[in-house]
């Protein structure tokens, strides 16, 4: 554990000042009268949050709150890549029998020693500029982190991209990953060769429209998402440099890009301007600035 050390969030004052300079000169497009969320994020909302971000949101206060959490970082070596810094939170349980839990992007029974890393290329962890850093490398990095903390065996909870990473950990290190909980599961139709009976049942159900009302509603929502809610994923997957340049230079652009999904994916939760700045915008934008200066 010699390479494990405490980490303190310390965004340079110059980065905060640069952010506020950009917020102060932000320009906004005109908005179509009566436009709702069907056209994307509402300009009026972005204007309001930008004003709050610039005039009222205190990064210093938020940074102080962040530093009350148990931050650490470790130097991790992955085959084929230079060593890099991996940031993580490590909250140990008071129970001596607590289960190590890798929490990929406290409880009473059972108890857990929670390890919540910032994946490489996210948050306060290093940026990997060499191409080829994929699922196997993410898996190796997180597995080595758990070993460096003394956890030879552990469980994991994950969602979004984390489900692919932790599934990969299970395949690569089955002796260590003893249990896995996923909060996002991607389903595909059954295969004719692997599950012929299930495949025939699926065809009959689909073409005769024998779905239950909840199933029909779910299929409709999925189709709507594919046609009108998935464009962000396509551009980030196919043209990351193009969208990355835009978002890295414009705090308001990043605000609009992320705020739309905060609203769309949170079941009509009423976000306050303070929560938006804390939860996503201030953290991600200033993290990026900090890391550019740091590395």
TrEMBL record:
It holds the Pfam family EHN. The keyword Hydrolase applies. Residues 4-106 form the Epoxide hydrolase N-terminal domain. The keyword Cytoplasm does not apply. GO terms for molecular function: epoxide hydrolase activity. GO terms for biological process: epoxide metabolic process. Keywords: Aromatic hydrocarbons catabolism, Hydrolase. Belongs to the peptidase S33 family. This is Epoxide hydrolase N-terminal domain-containing protein. It comes from Cytospora leucostoma.
